[in-house]
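Q: Hi! Curious about what ABC transporter substrate-binding protein looks like structurally. Here's the sequence.
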Amino acid sequence: MRGSKMVGCAIVVALAATACGGSGGDSESKGKSGGGFSMNIAEPKRLVPQSTTESGGSQVLSGLFTPLVDFDAKNQPVLAAAESIESPDNKVWTVKLKDATWHDGKPVTAKDYVGAWNWGAYGPNAADGNYFFGTIQGYDEMNPVDPDGEEGPKKAEEPKAKELSGLKVIDDKTFEITLKAPFAGYKSVLGYTVFYPMPESALSDLKAYEEAPIGQGPFQMDGKWNHDKFVKVKAYPDYKLGDKPKVDSVEFRIFQDQNTAYNDLLANNLDIVDQIPTEVMGTAPGELGDRFKTSQASTFQFVAFPTYDKKYSDARVRKAISMAIDRDEIIKVVFQDSQSSARSFVSPVVGGYREDTCGEACKFDPAAAKKLLAEAGGIEGNKINIGHNADGGHEQWINATCDQLKKNLGLDCVSQAVPKFAELLTQVENKKFSGMFRMGWIMDYPSMENYLGPLYSTGGSSNYYGYSNKDFDRLLQEGREAKTEAEAIQKWQAAEDVLAKDMPVIPLRFGKNVFGHSTNVKNVEMNLFNQVELTKVEKS
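A: Let's find out. The predicted structure is below.
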């Protein structure tokens, strides 16, 4: 399953928020009794599908739900919960569902999808995944533009509609989606978390539902979400949308420190750590042996500039800071070569990727950086800070980055930690964080568009820095409307070139999954979406 999104951790690097580890929950399961296993996650921000756009929550929901489509080894969409997804014109899409039941035994219907999506698209609900419904007809009526011309969940006007006019229930197992414009790659988009359904009962009391979500996936909740401690799930016996789990239960233990999670793993008190801490990268292979694992991932780590801070309003300042960072050295010294330098804005795992698209701005050149910063008039107070979430294992690399900026630009640079990733996201979203801040991204679906749209389009779901460029938005949309993948990629590459000129963020690293497991389990795999494949794990 997928996770989109913002990643919280440093190593597995990825896109947006990864479960990080560290202060074990008080639970009895150690992955030995009852055919269960345990793994680490960060405290989820939400457990409502339409509002879950970070990796901790997405990992949990990947067990509770089955998407309409999954992806094969070539990143092509394959039907999962859908029996068919068809369109004659790439604008009107008809989805037919396979027979399935909710975890309470009731049948899953087309109405459950339409109701959940309408809730996510309705602006006043402030769903974090609201943006992803923006391609569907009727979205604008549910999300009026505020007086400042900015789109977002908080609206100055009351929406004119509460339902998407582009969604229509045909029968119990069929619904129709009408987009605002053709989108050839829309089938892949439907694999993302925000397009999961919710039972009708959820919408009447979402607060209660979120504490113990009812899904239609291979696992069901076992009790309620015990905040900051754990989430327990158990195999759903009537699951019929895919492979059934090979274990009876999973315990997602919530950690605030990755090193604590890793120590629990070494003691066989935790079965899976989805991200080996940076500090032990040199020793972990020897300590874990063949239980030290790596695999390809779609993660992308970067530092963002807050557009609401005048200190970083000049593109020359942003480029100078980027040019003063020696990515290769940090990867070698801090990450033990477990990641690779990023000098582009999209991951190498998607079609259309090009090397070095950010050009001179991502080339390490201290002399040129210092000159460019001087031409821009320097930085007020000669001070900068880089924010990060304390539960993600970022302190070491951010301190190394600050050391380079002190040396190469003469800036007083400090690391600024916020306790939790969810808290950091909330602060920057509400423009209450002052300074630069690290972000990460894991693709939601395999497309250049998924790296560009959510992160950089005006009102994008994960555009926490407020970047806006009309030319970029136009090229992005033209790519969506292109008739062929080749034509779409050409437009999206042109949009990426706009980013290289504006530098709203500093590309730093592309990552891979670097994870480990205890002697209690086997067949542990992580996918491109930075998630453990829960149904594949077996007891040793």
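A: A fun detail: The chain has 15 helices and 20 strands.
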